[in-house]
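HUMAN: Ready with one sample?

ASSISTANT:
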Amino acid sequence: VRVTGSELVGLVPLDAILDAGRHYLRLQHRSLGVSDAELIKIAVKSLGLDELGPFDPKEKIIDYAIDDTPDRLAGMQVRAFIEETASESPAPGGGSVAATVGALGAALGTMVANLSSHKRGWDERWEEFSDWAEKGKACHAELVSLIDADTAAFDNLMDAMRLPADSDEATSERDTAIQAATREAIEVPLRVMEVTLDAMEVLAAMAETGLAASVSDAGVGAACARAAVVGAYLNVRINAPGLTDEDESARYLDRAGSLRDQVEAAETAILATVTARL
């Protein structure tokens, strides 16, 4: 039964609206791994929040009303992002592109899970695929946030390098700032690698048990994930020598190498599964 003509007084937390959207999807045995925008739309329609007046999430949801986080690259249209990447500016560069490709790979795994959840005749399996879709959604959402984070890390490193070094104190402050910015420039692509490895679990499951008609999409997702991780690995490699602590640098490189190897092995296995099902 859908509620008719309800109204919220004041602002509502985002989590409350998202939980409401998931509640109504669960009642319909529909996958919960959809976008926040879709969850909000479902909650608003199911609760009748737009029947007595317009419901603008940017004005009614407190998280959106106070959010001033820059989202310049991730908010671009595809063509604009490509053209910005192709410009003479060094950022966005390979790190942001790697995060973008990883997000697309995770999104493909989420798509296959959502399609599988809604397949006729698989009604008893909707929750199994919904769980995978939710995991995939979490992965691609974080990877999207890392698109701008990578460019911000690069900008911070450039700013640190431009600091004055005209006295011993200034030189010390500059060196400290460079080391902190270098760690950030390593940890962002490292996080891209970690999240993409998590997304590989979704892609592997969808390649094996997902909708047969979409198995090729799982394969494309795996290829995207591998490209993202190799790209992120290169960014770790180019920045790690900037650390003065050689042991710390080696630890970062060892971790990155391990993640790369795991993702490459996962892609090989996934593509073999996909090929066998084509």
Q: What stands out?
A: Residues 72 and 154 are 15 Å apart (CA to CA). DSSP finds ten helices and no strands in the chain.
